[in-house]
Amino acid sequence: MDIKQVHKATCHCGSVELELRMPNGLEDARRCSCSMCRKRGTVMASVDVKDLMVTRGEEFLTLYQFNTLTAKHYFCKRCGIYTHHQRRSNPYQYGINVACLEGVNPYDVENVTVTSGIHEPGEGINL
């Protein structure tokens, strides 16, 4: 798996395109146990907020928030694919959908941990 220092990510239909600075490759590859992530089932990695740029299709991104309204989950309005979210546990980072990374198969990512998002304060509500 070749993770470039500057990597492109897109939604399924290609309407949304992100540019990610990833000098250390995939960082913090994980799945989360919160109610949203359990239903989404995505392998995520982290990038600093400053290292994610929407290079095309910002008008096609839609925002979903729930419970404490802290995390900001972004999806393509056209195809429905989750591309990234501003993390509740660290608002200075985005969680990115590894499956959206160009040329990356999320099933090839090794050592994916499961974080206990359901046990974060205020996260006991399943919506």
From TrEMBL:
Transmembrane segments: none annotated. The keyword Zinc applies. SUPFAM superfamilies: Mss4-like. Keywords: Metal-binding, Zinc. InterPro entries: CENP-V-like, CENP-V/GFA, Mss4-like_sf. It comes from the Bacteria. Residues 7-123 form the CENP-V/GFA domain. It comes from Enterovibrio qingdaonensis. This is GFA family protein. It holds the Pfam family GFA. The lineage of its organism: Bacteria, Pseudomonadati, Pseudomonadota, Gammaproteobacteria, Vibrionales. Belongs to the Gfa family. The keyword Mitochondrion does not apply.
